[in-house]
């Protein structure tokens, strides 16, 4: 069963191949995403993160979810040498952590009962098991120069894949290190064992520019495919294992 | 790798400083002169002083006595290393006669450096190809979302600065 909705202002696609999956299973995950949105959306006035940004909440009053996200953000900031930072001039936007975290948790909720799952929020994907043909999930990597095309197909099972890039709106990842928008490369795709790692490292690596792929190469179990503005790609050696 | 580069940069900065000091020793223009025109702090023989570490001096800056003549204490001040991944940015300020007489930039990350790295030791880890349009059936597509939260955050930041 496949369902599509919009949550957190982004398209959500869930596909569960296993028989016996119910509407209730899907609505549970959608409800979870709405819960996350209400807590972490910087666009919602009453969200917890908005209250924190308005200094209406003190540290001791933070929810456990918020504390978790803050500690994951801090960990990621250290792991990426400061390239990933939810704090921009004292304005906290944890979206870069929350998205992958939510996708992974949503997919894990389904994975408790089912084996073959595809869960995507706006181009970031977690897959478990196999697709409807009992093969690994075939995932395309979007052409950063034409959003209607794909330039690569990878075969994934029990993996997360995320892409950071500059489609349509120009550079949109902020390089916290030199306070400039990152725009040296067209896109950075990262494959990891889970979408949470893939997403946060794709964001950080994209912000690093061309050397982002070298950063990915240093991470164990994480592979990357970086597309440069000259339409060439540089990728990690392990990435080839996912390509036919 | 990161630590190795950091060490390289720190060592590089150190040798650069040593080199610079030797240059300064030969350059009479940098002898600090007070308002009366009398040389107050002749530069000491560099051979005995050039091994002073580049860390921030506390009481014995490189120019001998720490006579207060301007806004700053004489000496060589090395800034913190920034962006310590595949390169670093680090500046060093030279204070002479209480004034900043030189700022040295050690800027490591740049495109050429990155390319050299890829062409050199990283090649076994990285590969390169021209991208090609594919026409396979896929279950989904990974791509950057048009409404990236980071983009919005950046915009909010820009607007805040514009206030």
Task: Describe what you observe in this structure.
The complex is a heterodimer of chains A (244) and B (163). Chain A has 244 residues and is α+β, with helices and mostly antiparallel strands. Chain A has a single domain, classed as T-fold, CATH 3.10.520. Helices cover 32% and strands 32% of the residues of chain A. Chain A has six helices and 14 strands. In chain A, the strands form four sheets. Chain A has an eight-stranded antiparallel beta sheet with strand order 1-2-5-6-9-12-13-14. In chain A, strands 3-4 form a two-stranded antiparallel ribbon. A two-stranded antiparallel ribbon of chain A has the order 7-8. In chain A, helix 1 packs antiparallel against helix 4 and helix 4 runs antiparallel to helix 5. About 2% of the residues of chain A have low confidence. Chain B is 31% helix and 18% strand. Chain B has a single domain, classed as Sufe protein. Chain: A (Alpha-Beta Complex). Chain B has 163 residues and is α+β, with helices and mostly antiparallel strands. Chain B contains four helices and five strands. In chain B, strands 1-2-3 form a three-stranded antiparallel beta sheet, covered by helices on one side. The longest helix of chain B is centred in the N-terminal third of the chain and has 24 residues. Chain B is elongated, with a radius of gyration of 24 Å. At the A-B interface, strand 2, helix 4, strand 6, strand 7 and strand 8 of A face helix 3, strand 4, strand 5 and helix 4 of B. Strand 14 of chain A pairs antiparallel with strand 4 of chain B.
């Amino acid at each position: 069963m496949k369902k599509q909705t919009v949550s957190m202002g982004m398209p959500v696609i869930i596909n569960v191949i296993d028989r016996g999956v119910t509407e209730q299973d899907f609505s549970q995950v959608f409800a979870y995403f709405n819960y996350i949105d209400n807590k972490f959306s910087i666009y919602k006035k009453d969200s917890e993160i908005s209250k924190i940004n308005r200094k209406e909440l003190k540290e001791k009053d933070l929810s456990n979810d918020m504390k978790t996200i803050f500690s994951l953000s801090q960990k990621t900031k250290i792991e990426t040498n400061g390239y990933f930072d939810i704090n921009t001039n004292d304005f906290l936007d944890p979206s870069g952590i929350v998205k992958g975290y939510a996708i992974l948790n949503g997919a894990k909720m389904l994975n408790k009962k089912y084996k073959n799952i595809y869960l995507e929020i706006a181009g970031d994907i977690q897959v478990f098991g196999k697709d409807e043909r009992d093969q690994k999930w075939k995932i395309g990597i979007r052409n950063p120069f034409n959003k209607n095309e794909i330039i690569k197909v990878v075969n994934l099972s029990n993996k997360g894949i995320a892409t950071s890039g500059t489609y349509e709106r120009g550079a949109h990842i902020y390089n916290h290190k030199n306070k400039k928008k990152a725009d040296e490369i067209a896109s950075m795709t990262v494959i990891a064992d889970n979408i949470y790692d893939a997403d946060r490292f794709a964001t950080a690596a994209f912000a690093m520019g061309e050397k982002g792929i070298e950063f990915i190469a240093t991470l164990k179990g994480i592979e990357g495919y970086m597309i440069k503005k000259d339409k060439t790609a540089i990728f990690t050696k392990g990435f080839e294992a996912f390509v036919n | 790798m990161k630590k190795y580069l950091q060490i390289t940069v720190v060592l590089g900065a150190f040798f650069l400083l040593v080199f610079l000091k030797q240059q300064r020793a030969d350059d009479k223009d940098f002898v600090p002169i007070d308002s009366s025109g009398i040389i107050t702090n002749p530069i000491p023989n560099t051979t005995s002083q050039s091994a002073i570490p580049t860390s921030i001096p506390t009481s014995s800056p490189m120019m001998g006595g720490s006579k207060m003549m301007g806004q700053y204490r004489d000496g060589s001040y090395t800034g913190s290393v920034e962006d310590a991944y595949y390169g670093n940015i680090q500046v060093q300020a030279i204070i002479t006669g209480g004034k900043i007489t030189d700022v040295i930039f050690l800027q490591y990350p740049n495109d050429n450096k990155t390319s050299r790295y890829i062409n050199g030791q990283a090649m076994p880890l990285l590969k390169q190809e021209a991208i090609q349009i594919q026409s396979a059936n896929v279950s989904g597509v990974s791509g950057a979302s048009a409404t990236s939260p980071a983009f919005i955050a950046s915009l909010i930041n820009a607007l805040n600065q514009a206030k």
